[in-house]
Inverse folding.
């Protein structure tokens, strides 16, 4: 098949060809998922999953040369009563159950972390305050792993807040028990020198609801893999994303929703604004509806707003359907410009240029921001959006 | 009394790597309370005049002056012109995704009036104006011009005209693409603003049809980038009967 031909010579493995007959989503990766970094060849940039990424700016995370330093990142967890917060050894059985690393850097993170964080919300617990995981970069290189687990019918909001400067490869597992409801807000508000690569795996239990907001403002390079799979029927995933890519920044979000279970839902909406020379946003939206996943209902959408010349968006939605017995499946991708005609129209109504731009960008992001439901985060995002805009003027 | 004075206006545009002169010396004075119709064949420069007055960056002013109450309009940015009292109802209003009509109108009114309108009176004002233009209230929640029909776009332009209450309103082919009902509704909106006696109106049109609803005080024939004949309303009747051929010498295609 056509997709398979894109795989560069030298990176093929037997495993990859075996899955090729089933799924082009899987074959677009140059090696099958694995927890061991040694199972992945060092990427050279032409592989399908790396072709948009500036490898030379990953500071060695992809080729084994990035060695963890003592002061990489500081992690502080604040949790309401009833939540268990632990730091555990690599052999803890709760690690790695939500998904397997799909690329070399995720596997590198898994192979290199020393201790993992585990946050557990017990069965039936309904939290009224968010759990906050503050990840602050202290200028070094770090590998990490975080597990967030909700027992059956538990409800929680988790805010993972990345700030400071670091070279970080870290994976996060979200494990949702039956009927659980988890909202995750992951904010990448890094300094503009940071490099952050990671895989976020969610395993959604029967009738459970997973809602995620991935918000990326900062970093030199941010490359995240939000991935979802279902452990039982009736699961729902809502994956929202917001990015504001400035001059010289590379921000890449590669999603996979694996409809591996019947009667589950997913809805993906990522929106990005870009401005400045060399701003580069990449959005890959893979949705796979496996043959057994009858009754699936899925939609994914990516919208980009290019505010200036010199910015680039690569947006690739990919829907793969192996059964016709579904409720609905669709995708959309559009990239628009805030152009001179729109600016003229608003200014011709008395609105100054900077306010016109703010009006458009705030409007563009509003429907996403309003759905977060965490007041201080919503406010911070709106302030942040305004700051980004002011920086450009 | 507000007066817009255009004197010997020359305007060029860049097209196909060449500079083309579109306006070749326009002279026109519009006073508050007056309605001037500018009529002419396609390509005569009518719309260029409208957009040049509003300050569209595509057009370069190469000569002449434009003043509003003695103030140099050509020195002002686009938004300054609007705040000074110029309003352009556009022939092809653009879509602004993500910005609702209600948010847009309030932001615009705040900018033009210099202060935010009081919320309660503002909501009522918008609602009543929309009703008079036969616009459904749900309109306010839609994004500016997004998915609007041709008639909806024009009504939205006139809604802004009524709310912003400019000193000078330039209506660029507001009648084009409208059916008779929509034309009547839009014209009534324009007439409500005219009846205040506080606006000067520059009505740019290709057809005489709209002049049945909006009675001009003066009619100017525009051809080859300048006004070639001026008269009263009777000039429109002549154009209705004879067309533009006398002005284009049969050589310029319409």
């Amino acid at each position: 098949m056509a997709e398979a031909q894109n795989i560069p010579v030298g990176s093929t493995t037997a495993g990859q060809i075996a899955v090729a007959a089933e799924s082009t989503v899987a074959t677009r990766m140059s090696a099958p998922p694995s927890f061991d970094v040694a199972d992945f060849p060092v990427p050279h940039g032409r592989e399908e999953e790396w072709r948009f990424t500036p490898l030379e700016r990953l500071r060695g995370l992809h080729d084994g040369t990035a060695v963890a330093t003592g002061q990489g990142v500081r992690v502080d967890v604040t949790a309401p009563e009833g939540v268990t917060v632990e730091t555990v050894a690599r052999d803890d059985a709760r690690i790695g159950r939500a998904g397997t690393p799909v690329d070399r850097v995720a596997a590198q993170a898994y192979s290199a972390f020393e201790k993992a964080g585990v946050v557990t919300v017990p069965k039936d617990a309904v939290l009224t305050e968010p759990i906050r995981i503050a990840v602050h970069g202290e200028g070094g290189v770090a590998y990490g792993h975080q597990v967030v687990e909700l027992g059956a019918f538990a409800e929680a909001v988790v805010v993972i807040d990345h700030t400071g400067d670091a070279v970080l490869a870290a994976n996060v597992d979200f494990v949702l028990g039956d009927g659980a409801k988890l909202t995750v807000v992951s904010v990448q508000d890094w300094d503009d020198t940071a490099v952050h690569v990671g895989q976020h795996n969610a395993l959604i239990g029967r009738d459970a609801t997973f809602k995620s907001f991935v918000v990326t403002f900062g970093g030199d390079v941010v490359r995240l893999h939000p991935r979802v799979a279902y452990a039982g029927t009736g699961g729902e995933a809502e994956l929202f994303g917001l990015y504001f890519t400035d001059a010289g920044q590379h921000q890449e979000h590669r999603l996979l929703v694996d409809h591996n279970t019947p009667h589950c839902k997913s809805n993906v909406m990522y929106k990005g604004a870009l401005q400045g020379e060399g701003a580069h946003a990449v959005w890959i939206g893979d949705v796979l509806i496996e043959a057994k996943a009858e009754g699936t209902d899925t939609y994914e959408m990516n919208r980009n707003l290019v505010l200036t010349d010199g910015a680039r968006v690569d947006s690739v939605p990919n829907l793969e359907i192996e059964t016709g017995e579904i409720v609905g499946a669709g995708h959309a991708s559009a990239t628009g410009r805030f152009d001179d005609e729109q600016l003229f129209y608003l200014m011709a109504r008395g609105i100054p240029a900077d306010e016109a731009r703010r009006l458009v960008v705030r409007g563009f992001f509003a429907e996403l921001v309003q759905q977060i439901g965490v007041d201080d985060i919503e406010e911070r995002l709106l302030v942040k959006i305004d700051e980004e805009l002011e920086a450009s003027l | 009394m507000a007066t817009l004075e255009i004197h010997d206006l020359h305007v060029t545009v860049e097209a196909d790597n060449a500079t083309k002169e579109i306006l070749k010396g326009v002279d026109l004075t519009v006073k508050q309370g007056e309605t001037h119709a500018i009529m002419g064949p396609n390509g005569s420069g009518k719309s260029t005049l409208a957009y040049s007055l509003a300050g569209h960056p595509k057009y370069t002013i190469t000569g002449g002056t434009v003043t509003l109450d003695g103030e140099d309009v050509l020195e002002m940015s686009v938004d300054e012109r609007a705040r000074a009292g110029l309003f352009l109802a556009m022939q092809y209003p653009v879509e602004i995704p993500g910005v609702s009509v209600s948010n847009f109108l309030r932001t615009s009114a705040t900018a033009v009036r210099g202060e935010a309108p009081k919320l309660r009176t503002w909501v009522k004002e918008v609602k009543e104006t929309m009703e008079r233009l036969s616009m459904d209230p749900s309109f306010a929640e839609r994004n500016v011009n997004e998915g609007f029909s041709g008639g909806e776009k024009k009504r939205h332009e006139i809604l802004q005209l009524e709310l912003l209450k400019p000193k000078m309103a330039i209506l660029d082919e507001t009648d084009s693409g409208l059916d008779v009902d929509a034309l009547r509704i839009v014209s009534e909106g324009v007439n409500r603003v005219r009846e205040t006696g506080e606006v000067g109106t520059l009505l740019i049109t290709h057809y005489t049809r709209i002049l049945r609803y909006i009675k001009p005080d003066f009619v100017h024939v525009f051809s080859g980038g300048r006004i070639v004949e001026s008269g009263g309303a009777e000039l429109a009747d002549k154009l209705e009967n004879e067309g533009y051929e006398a002005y284009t010498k049969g050589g310029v295609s319409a």
In short: Residues 37-338 of chain A form one domain. Helices of chain A lie at 2-5, 14-20, 24-27, 104-112, 340-347, 353-369, 375-392.
